[in-house]
Amino acid sequence: MGGCMSRKTGDFNPQKDLKDLTGKVAIVTGGNTGIGYHTVKFLARKGAKVYLGARNEVKAREAIAQLEQEGLGSGQVVWLQVNLADPQWAQMAAEDFLEKEKRLDILSAHFSQFVFTRVLLPLMIKTAKLPKSDVRIISVGSIAHTQKRAMNPYLKFEMLQDFNQEFASDFYPDWSRYSMTKLTAILFARELQKRLDEFEIPIISIPIHPGEVNTFGDRTPWPFLANIMMELFFMRPEAGSYTSCFAAASPLIEEFPEKYRYAYLEPVGHIGTLSPNALSVNLASQLWDTTEKILKDLKIELPLINP
């Protein structure tokens, strides 16, 4: 296990290799468990005020208590109720945050981030105009975007029906659904970067693959066997958070923004290779435009992207 982990993480140390985040504000969704939990921990230890996004208050409070026990250094962790399962709830969560803070430097979201990010974006644009700002948006993708269903050369997102795919006939339906979810996360991140660049807004939008992390063994058809295999060959969630942390706060990204703009990061901080679908400008544009149309039909109006 140790050899596998060192091979994936190299010499990266989030305690030493992240920039000082004193005075910065971050949001990490799914922050009460797994990769999100450790991302919260390491950003807080560098001095950030981190909003731990989670649906359940009890679980969030338990996570915060555990984080405080492990030690947060000069940072602070605050619960933010975030439920991204419904776009209206996502909008409400973002609006709740906007009532609490005057800046947002880092947003790390693990799924269903379209509405949440768009509502927060005006504040992030405002933050990007401040002196010594370095605003980043991290979309947690996965190498699963290269799996069969997400590699379909005929894939399109032109209408609502294109999103409602049937997975029941697949060998492992949950994995197929997961691969499609992670493909859309990457497409969203890249399209967001393109639209930010059109207005010369200095925000970096980064999709990442955290590595093969032991976070979902219990959800496989063979949980006992899967957990044994994952313990042997997969990283633990703490090591799995390293690429999220790199994307959020590595000084290298601030120093070489052109290198990392449109990059897809793999452990730890290495630029990976995307599938043809993930690189598709047309698919990314379709996904964005159709999502906006669907939301408009739901009476959810999102702020425009402009300086």
Automatic annotation (TrEMBL):
Which Gene3D superfamilies does the protein's record reference? NAD(P)-binding Rossmann-like Domain (3.40.50.720)
Q: Which UniProt keywords apply?
A: Oxidoreductase
In terms of domain of life, where is this protein from?
Eukaryota
UniProt GO molecular function: oxidoreductase activity
According to UniProt, the name of this protein is NAD(P)-binding protein
> InterPro entries per the record?
NAD(P)-bd_dom_sf (IPR036291), SDR_fam (IPR002347)
Cite the PANTHER family for this sequence: PHOSPHATIDYLINOSITOL-GLYCAN BIOSYNTHESIS CLASS F PROTEIN, PHOSPHATIDYLINOSITOL-GLYCAN BIOSYNTHESIS CLASS F PROTEIN-RELATED
